[in-house]
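User: Last request for today: this protein with glutamine, please.
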Amino acid sequence: MTARDIAARLKAAGVSNPFQESLWLIAHAVGRTHAQILAGDEFSPDEERRVDAVISRRIAGEPLQYILGAADFCGRDFAVGPGVLISRHDTETLIEGVKGCFARDDSFRFADWGTGSGCIAVTILLEFPNASGVAVDVSGEALSYARENAGYWGVDGRLETGGHVSGEFDLIVSNPPYIPSGEIAGLPCDVRDYEPNLALDGGVDGMTCYREIFALAGKVLRPGGYIILEAGDMSQVHALANWGEPFAFDCAIMDAGNFPRCIVIRRI
Ligand code: GLN
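Assistant: Here's the final one, the structure of the complex with glutamine:
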């Protein structure tokens, strides 16, 4: 068995990036560098068994990032696993949104509503050394990933974690669950069967969590403060941008597919 054979198995199973994924999975299974794998060294029978175990999981549809235990967000790795959403590159537009609202040295306080792995909150804290925040989630599992990631990246001194928000904030940021309940069954099976429904299902019209966020902002967001939200479809973009007073649309940021993924709103 060679790395090339493994890539061919992934390819035949419909994995879209089989050569690169085979390097990541083999390296994870046997602790070799990519250079060693590419050099084509033989695997021992024990190593073959370990490689086979991870490849079988991937072929069965488990997301790559759950097998590796980590996902990239803005060029940094974050621990992930069953129970938290895997960060998507589209969500990096939220960080661009924050950079448009605050200068690097500003001191501001934010809430990351539905933090999941904590990748948004931790990235904000790394990019803004004087910021502090609260990572909020209803899932205890998610909060333990968020704490682990904040600790690894050394920002846990500036991040509280918990189930609810109190105090006054300059920013509420969120990638909430926004998929309408009726569309969950039609999602790709690696998402539908492996990622937490709690992080995906936004209720009948997909808007349930947005309503909660705006209600919360009415109480805890200071006038002049920002709400920065990920949107899932065009009707959500319009609804968020036209929420009504005291909230005013500020700008939208396009993702790689040219969809206005990040909506920046200001409290008047
Ligand atoms: N973007 C995710 C997906 O398409 C959904 C994330 C969310 O609901 N916030 O799977």
